Amino acid sequence: MRLDDRSAGPRPGFPRMIVFDNVTVAYSQERPALSGVNLTITDGAFTYIVGATGAGKSTLLRLVYCDLAPTQGAVIVDGVRLDGRRGCDVPALRRRMGVVFQDIGLLPDRNVYENVAFALRVIGAGHRKIRRNVPDALELVGMVHRPDAYPRQLSGGEQQRVAIARALVNNPPLLLADEPTGNLDPDTSMGIAEVLDRINQAGTTVVVATHDQPMVDAMQRRVIELSRGRLVRDEERGGYGASISDEA
Ligand SMILES: Nc1ncnc2c1ncn2[C@@H]1O[C@H](COP(=O)(O)OP(=O)(O)O)[C@@H](O)[C@H]1O
Ligand SMILES: [Mg+2]
Q1: How far is ligand 2, taken at its centre, from the CA of residue 209, in Å?
Q2: Is the pLDDT of residue 1 over 80?
Q3: The domain 3-236: what is its CATH number?
Q4: How far apart are alpha carbons 176 and 61 in whole angstroms?
Q5: Beta carbons of 198 and 120 less than 8 angstroms apart
Q6: pLDDT confidence of residue 13
């Protein structure tokens, strides 16, 4: 499926992209990292996951990208119940989602084009698909004019755009981002927020874990707030939340 083939909004038959049914994650005997979390994210939606450091944001995303299995409860992504085995093989994951992180992780010895193409080469995509999809993905993130640049020649924001293109180049229906603006200044962060928004407008379901207050406040999207592993707020159009404090 090409990026421009996907219209925004729910796809018939798969209205629910992510379902958490009473999910608990306990890494140890201490307070669980997530406790009894219930949520549904509809296909085509844009959702911010907010909360103080340690609230459980990364744990929530790790469940979705199968880096972790729930201790209790069920996680269902794109119709597949993830239990640490099913739906967690690498090819299935790569078809279903792209993931970006605070640590951008581009290959330093490859240029922009090759960094993005690499994500297709590792799944055995042919030359034709690479020649078609890489420019599309770079266009979407506003980097189509720098295919020959190496990561060290780019700003942090430009590098993150390339990482987003790499995550999307196989046209997955879902994009996850864990603190994508964590290392960026406020202006650059807003540019990344706009790129994520544009990707969502093109039909991709986007879930962003962040404690970037200005970004969340500016975008006024769905906000799910975690506090000490519990879901404490779910607003259809919300801001970051006045009560969140990393000192608490
Ligand atoms: N691999 C791990 N082993 C043990 N505890 C962990 C691990 N990862 C996270 N935690 C704990 O789980 C809680 C939630 O962490 P995390 O999901 O990383 O929160 P956030 O991303 O919101 O900062 C924290 O108390 C953290 O210390
Ligand atoms: Mg985190």
Answers
A1: 7
A2: no
A3: 3.40.50.300
A4: 7
A5: no
A6: 56
Is pTM beyond 0.70? Reply is yes
| Helix or strand (DSSP H, E) at 39 | strand 34-42
Pocket test for ligand 1, best of 34, 35, 59 (most atoms within 8 A of CB): 59
35 CA to centre of ligand 2 in angstroms = 16
Residue 161: pLDDT above 90? yes
Residue 208 Cα to ligand 1 midpoint, Å, equals 17
Distance CA 112, CA 184 (A): 19
- Residue 9 near residue 44, CB atoms below 8 Å: yes
Q: Which residues contact 168 (CB under 8 A, 6 or more apart)?
A: 3, 98, 137, 140, 141, 175, 199, 204
Residue 53 burial (CB count, 10 A) = 12
Domain boundaries, the chain: 3-236
For 114-130, how does the pLDDT look when each residue is reduced to its tens digit (9 = 90+)?
999 999 999 899 999 99
